[in-house]
Amino acid sequence: MKKITLIFVLLFFFQSYSQEIKSYTWDEKPIFDEISAEHKDQPAVVLFDKRWIHTRVGAYAYATFGMNHFAIKINKAGEINKYNKIKAQDNGYIRDVRDFHARIIKPNGEIKIIPQDKIIETEIDKVKSIVFEGVEAGDILEYYFIIKENPSAYGVEVFQKDIPVLFAEFTHTQEGVKFETYASSEFKKSSSKNKTILTATNIPIFKEESNATNIKNLVKLIYMVSTPSMDIYNWNYFLPQYLAKPSFQYFKKAQAREFIQKLNIGTESTEEKLIKIDEYIKTNFDFISRGETAQKITNLNNGKQKLTGGDIFDLYGFTLKELKIPYKVAVGMSRFNGEIDTEKFVVPLSHEFMYYIPETKKFLSPYEKYLSYGYPPYELQGSEGRTYYPALKENYVLSFPIAPAEFTVNESKSTVTFSDDLTMANIEKTLSYTGYDGQLNRNWVKYINENQDDKKLGEYIKERVFGDDFNIKITNYSFENQEFKYNYSNTPYNVIVKAEAQESLTENAGNLVLVNLGKMIGKQGNLYQETDRKWDVDLKYAKTFKHKIVFNIPNGYEVESFKDLEIDKKTGGDETTNCSFKSTVKVEGNQLIVEVFEIYKSINYPKEIYQEYRNVVNASSDFTKASVVLRPKK
């Protein structure tokens, strides 16, 4: 009898939640929270943003009901067109828009209901939308809609906007499924009887900053829906299943074994074996592009071929296993997007899969075409991941290493010679890249060359070597160390250019001549406008810049001053993690020699020292405006 009673109670709750969301409505006379003084000057303010998802899966049910209820106050007339058009949520699975209501609340309390005949529906995708008409500054726009759709296994709900949000609410109820949420720290959670409510108040304006984890910082909520009996995304289940057997789609195991034999791997060290494997695969296999159809492979050693990403990943794993090289599968996530969950694979988030070699403490990254065996993808540096050790069927936490600033070096040497009348400047410049920049640039130029895009190649050289704001005519260029094999020894990738300045680099000041030599280091970023900082600075990777400018002093002139070219800025604190910019100048015979050394030893700079960091970054931009002052010889 107790069991029967429990079943009726559960059925009552399931039905009540289902009916509750379908019969949802707004308050006849709404009361909104007062807008605080700090938000009075905002162009608009979201008063509340409420969302509710109810999922039913069972013998006679397979549906999700979704409710969105939203209210916004328009403070400035210029913002009206930005917020007066509403479309019922469309994720491609909508079956039916059950309710769609909208109204305008005037400052005097008058409520104007938008007639149902103002709701329009597109012919093809059947998505309903509405436009608020007659909106004025000071009005509140309120709407809600209820949709019925096929259940989705996961979703991302973003609540933060470019205006303040006073109140956010996400409710989920479920029947026959397990519903899990991963919310930003701003949310508070309460649960009771298959109903969970997450709320957040006073969500600040989203501010996108350069070199910041903007996506990770966004106030949002991620959810996953699964059947209670299966937790297939738990790392303990997911990783062994993901790696159970290589699932080659376009070739067979016998061909994979033949591929390994033809690599002629013998008594080399583990390091040499891994380089040989990685170089061959990265050099000869490419990913199938969207819309392409892969061809069955008869010989994996037959030069350039295209495979799916999964086949390439499994070919690495199969090769390691056959050669008895111990490995772990490592899973990470871009630190700019979020943090990997310790318990499970969170489906909506993008994860990076690779192989970790315990003996060498290095990584193989099958999905990153540009990246050679060695360091992990730069986005993962300093973050935590998960590893699975097939030999022991165990998984562990892994901290991804950070490449030092000496690994990625951008180095240039420019020789500048003027014509006798100072109207023409000839420039010979060599720009070298190592580390992540070397590998990225090597791969990008390879792609341009393969597509025979001379225009794009010219734009690349001009932008990378001189900057797009320098009017220059390139008369000759060449590349050195282009092959992928140079990545393993971190050999510099060189771009060698001869050019003529198409703009004047000189300025007359009486009998003095100012020559803008700072421009030779190329266009530099700056933080002139970003005076304040909300988040820490997070760089792609630690990096070093070295520049040398050799200026042939024109006949009949000598150096009056070069003080503007001498800059020295650095952050305080730990010398092993700081950043700095320093330029030095000297005269040797008829040449002025300028040397610049700029380094960012860390990938993270706390917002508390932002002003010091900002001074270093701006120093490089200040340098590009600096000049040497010449005077006629007496």
List the helices and strands and how they pair.
Layout: H1 2-22, E1 44-58, E2 61-74, H2 80-83, E3 85-87, E4 94-105, E5 111-113, E6 120-121, E7 128-131, E8 140-149, E9 154-158, E10 165-175, E11 178-183, E12 188-192, E13 195-203, H3 214-217, E14 220-226, H4 235-242, H5 253-262, H6 270-284, E15 285-287, E16 305-307, H7 309-322, E17 328-332, E18 352-357, E19 362-364, E20 384-389, E21 394-399, E22 409-418, E23 425-433, H8 435-450, H9 454-466, E24 472-480, E25 493-501, E26 506-509, E27 512-515, E28 537-538, E29 543-552, E30 557-561, E31 568-570, E32 579-588, E33 591-600, E34 604-605, H10 610-623, E35 628-632
Parallel strand pairs: 1-10, 15-16, 22-29
Antiparallel strand pairs: 1-2, 2-8, 3-7, 4-5, 4-8, 6-7, 9-14, 10-13, 11-14, 12-13, 17-18, 17-20, 18-19, 20-21, 22-23, 23-25, 24-25, 26-27, 27-35, 28-34, 29-33, 30-35, 31-32, 32-33
